[in-house]
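Try it yourself: sequence plus adenosine monophosphate, in.
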Amino acid sequence: MFSIDSNTKPSSMKTNFNADNSRAATWVSCYVGLGSNLMNELGSPSEHIARALASMQEYGQIRELQASSFYASAPMGPQDQPDFVNAVAGFQTTLTPFTLLAYCQQLEALAKRARIRRWGERSLDVDILLYGDLQMTDPQLTIPHAGLSERNFVLIPLRELTPTLTVAGIPIVDYPQSNDWTGLTLLSCD
Ligand code: AMP
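Structure, out:
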């Protein structure tokens, strides 16, 4: 598991995010997937993910944050781009699904994410994987994440964090992609 260092937190995070109606009635267990394959002036792919995790660690509407190890994965879309670094974070939040989405997008913006091409390189991608046992389909937000059951770079770190998890009623260990390491490598912690 990745050890989260709050010293890498950008100080703007706590004050920037203050959406109205942002509080759920209670704490909800959530998982997000983080991915990066683009270095920029703020750092390397692993540093983008570490900084996002540190921001989450400091954020008042998130508690009990845990992060998986970091993994290298072959790109899903265009092949003429670097491998991705991926990780999954689990936590409890009082953010609603849409304000959690806005929060994830703010983490992406803080990594100076620019969209170059579909499924192409990006400094940071943060997707909501699970929000309690919520199932929703909206043009802006699908939960569980639409690609979750087919992506080993999501299922394997998710399984590392919570081996007993069930996704859409199915134990995570029973998803074929949670047992398939094709294109995936565990990165060392340092
Ligand atoms: P992406 O290319 O991964 O940054 O996703 C682009 C769009 O996907 C976002 O603007 C969201 O509105 C939408 N989206 C739908 N479901 C999700 C989800 N579970 N997590 C994150 N984004 C989502």
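One thing you can check immediately is this: The pocket of adenosine monophosphate is lined by residues 101, 125, 127-128, 140-143, 145 (CB under 6 Å).
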